[in-house]
Amino acid sequence: MKINTKSQRDLIASLQLCTQLNKTVSKVIFSKFNLLVLSFLCDRGFVTNFKFVKKGFNGYIAFSLRQINGSLVFSNIWSPYLVSSSKKNCFVKYHSYRSLLKSFSSEFVIVSTSLGLMTANEAISAKLGGLVVCVIR
Questions:
Q1: Of 46, 81, 51, residue with least CA distance to 66
Q2: pTM recorded for the entire structure
Q3: Residue 131 in contact with residue 95, Cβ under 8 Å?
Q4: Residues contacting 5, CB < 8 A, separation 6+
Q5: Most CB within 10 Å of its CB: which of 5, 8, 32, 52?
Q6: Residues 28, 60: contact at Cβ < 8 Å?
Q7: Is residue 131 classed exposed, middle or buried when 0-12, 13-18 and 19+ CB atoms within 10 A define those classes?
Q8: What pLDDT does 47 receive?
Q9: What is the pLDDT of residue 6?
Q10: Would you report the helix, strand and coil content of the chain in percent, each value rounded to 5?
Q11: For the chain, what is the total number of helices (H) and then of strands (E)?
Q12: Do 111 and 120 touch, CB atoms closer than 8 A?
């Protein structure tokens, strides 16, 4: 799956802002990538619901984050894909399943693999590598 940097930056920034402000409702620009990630997060229980709202030729995705006892189910989200700005040191690279096992074994990690989005643990057990989309704590 091709990752659109602008839409991923918008999604990660929106989710980070929600965690900082303890907001449960937000919206992001529509892209297939954002729709797939929000659908994945909904299946895993981080997002309660989302819907596509069309505005002219474009649109956005409105979503609600899950809360337990008044606080969000995750405290932080970040993307190694967006951390580095220089091309040489960029974290954008394929991670083998062994690399995922060494680097991201303790967190909830979403990986884009040849079979679609899955958690790092699912990718490791299927012996698949991929691109790390985001890390949730």
A1: 46
A2: 0.87
A3: yes
A4: 81, 82
A5: 8
A6: yes
A7: middle
A8: 97
A9: 78
A10: 35, 35, 35
A11: 5, 9
A12: yes
Look-up of token digits 């297939």: 32
pLDDT computed for residue 92 by the predictor: 58
Tokens 């030729």 sit at which residue?
57
Two tokens, residue 7: 């839409």
What is the 3-class SS of 20-85, one letter each residue?
HHCCCEEEEECCHHHHHHHHHHHHCCCEEEEEEEEECCEEEEEEEECEECCEECCCCEECHHHHCC
Q: Which of 102, 97, 99 is nearest to 122 (CA)?
A: 97
The domains located in the chain, with CATH, are 5-72 (3.30.1370.30), 79-136 (3.30.1490)
Q: Which residue type occupies 12?
A: I
Note down pLDDT in tens along the chain; length 137 residues.
Answer: 556 677 788 899 999 999 999 999 999 999 888 999 999 999 999 999 999 999 888 899 999 999 999 899 999 998 876 665 555 444 457 889 998 888 876 789 999 999 999 999 999 999 999 988 899 98
